[in-house]
Amino acid sequence: MADEPVFLYVARYSSEDEAREDYQLLVDLHAAGVVGTYDAAVVTKDDHKVHVHKHEKPTQHGAWTGVAVGAVVGIIFPPSIIGTAAVAGVAGGLIGHFWGGLSRGDVKALGDFLDEGQAALLVIGKSKLQEVLDRELKRATKSMQREIKADRRHVEAALEDSRKT
User: Fold this and answer.
1) Domain residue ranges of the chain, discontinuous segments joined by +
2) How confident is the model at residue 91 (pLDDT cuts 50, 70, 90)?
3) For the chain, where are the E strands, in sequence order?
4) Which residue, among 23, 20, 43, 46, has the nearest Cα to 35 in the 3D structure?
5) Residue 35 has what DSSP assignment?
6) Which long-range contacts (CB under 8 A, 24 or more apart) does 17-24 make?
7) Is 32 left (phi over 0), alpha (psi -120 to 50) or beta?
8) pLDDT tens-place string over residues 96-151
């Protein structure tokens, strides 16, 4: 068990618009101090590609923003179907930290979970997110949370290294 784990929250939506509305609510929750440091993105798919949509500036939430969600998407989906450059910025072994911190069963469950909806909101944070996000994000049809068994301090170091390259 990691000393300071990382948590992954995934909510599934019937439409991209609903996912984007909850994404904005997440940004508002962070501004109000309800949700701490996180990285988040709306993930959509079409017939052939997975797309990761982020709207925040890289400095809004510290080192977490920008590559953490890309690393998770890079683990769940084969690179050939990722339609954005979200994983291009992942460096410094971040994918390795997350890959080693999720069981194969978790990766498969996440992929299946995302395949069943039209859009999803992925949130990676320093603390458990499910209780507060399930209470606040009303548009999701279903959600799940997984603990990534990677020490948050090591993940933050990898994120910092990725920002330097």
Assistant:
1) 6-164
2) very low
3) 6-13, 38-45, 50-53, 119-125, 142-148
4) 23
5) S
6) 18/119, 18/139, 18/140, 19/43, 19/44, 19/119, 19/120, 19/121, 19/139, 20/53, 20/119, 21/139, 22/121, 22/137, 22/138, 22/139, 22/140, 23/55, 23/121
7) alpha
8) 666 667 778 888 888 888 888 789 898 888 777 888 899 999 899 999 888 888 76
Do the Cβ atoms of 75 and 107 come closer than 8 Å?
yes
Is the Cβ–Cβ distance between 114 and 12 less than 8 Å? yes
Residues in the chain, overall count: 165
Contact present, 136 and 23 (Cβ < 8 Å): no
